[in-house]
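Researcher: Let's do a round of design. I'm pasting the structure tokens now; please hold your answer until I've finished.
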């Protein structure tokens, strides 16, 4: 098992913090747009398909494919977390009142 040095640990912590903030901001934006979880799921799938087509010139094909797959998985995980938080927010929301 490889141990992380101080710099690697700081980078991992920074990326985890950024991911958390992006997910929170994403949930707020989706709620502000009154987006339903089904639409968020559609957007996540569209993002997966678009990102899967990206190529990285200058990298060997195998590394380009690997990098692309890692990006797809990372973005999909973030969007899935936003989608889940959105669905949970709608479940917790009080029913609308008619006046």
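Researcher: That's everything. Go ahead.
Model: Designed sequence:
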């Amino acid at each position: 098992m490889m141990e992380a040095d101080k710099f690697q640990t700081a980078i991992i912590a920074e990326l985890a913090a950024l991911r958390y903030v992006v997910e929170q901001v994403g949930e707020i934006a989706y709620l502000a747009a009154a987006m339903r979880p089904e639409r968020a799921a559609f957007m996540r799938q569209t993002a997966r398909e678009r990102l899967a087509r990206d190529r990285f010139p200058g990298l060997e094909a195998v590394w380009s494919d690997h990098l692309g797959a890692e990006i797809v998985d990372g973005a999909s995980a973030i969007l899935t977390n936003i989608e889940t938080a959105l669905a949970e927010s709608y479940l917790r929301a009080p029913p609308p009142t008619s006046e």
